[in-house]
Design goal:
By secondary structure, the chain is α+β, with helices and mostly antiparallel strands.
Length: 154
């Protein structure tokens, strides 16, 4: 019985001692997080049944991992058509990479696409996705660079 009390007391001491450090780290992390930038809507071209749209938010280009997030909207009334979004990242060290595409046939759905490192440009591509044919239609892409963001009014 006495052994259990000692072990329980030591465990409580260790847990209590680590809590302030963990909460201090969480506070530092939340303060360090930069606010997202609202890029705005990126919309596919309209077809005979509608279009797809993404309301896009981005992290700062100085972030180690760049994130494109927001909401994807399916505005096509055709049953086999859905909304599709994809991001192409242009890396600081050279080369490009595509994030896995996100699709939805719901009226709206949250999205999150992230890079594998620091980037100098991102192309956000929004399309109507034809499910039966497994192809994209009416695509439109916005190229987003730090220079464009820097020239925005504050």
């Amino acid at each position: 019985m006495r052994k259990n009390l000692v072990i329980g007391g030591l465990l409580a001491f260790v847990i209590a001692g680590s809590l302030p450090a963990a909460s201090a780290h969480a506070a530092t992390t939340s303060r360090a997080a930069a606010p997202l930038i609202h890029w705005g809507p990126v919309q596919s071209r309209s077809g005979h049944h509608g279009y797809a749209k993404a309301d896009v938010w981005i992290t700062r280009f100085t972030a180690e991992t760049f994130v494109v997030s927001g909401t994807l909207y399916d505005r096509d009334t055709h049953g086999g058509h859905c909304a599709y979004v994809r991001a192409r990242f242009h890396y600081v060290g050279g080369g490009t990479g595509w994030a896995l595409p996100k699709t939805t046939c719901a009226s709206k759905e949250p999205i999150r696409l992230s890079s594998d490192g620091q980037i100098k440009r991102v192309d956000v591509k929004v399309c109507v996705y034809d499910r039966p044919r497994r192809t994209t239609l009416n695509c439109y892409a916005d190229a987003i660079t730090p220079a464009i963001i820097a020239n925005w009014p504050q």
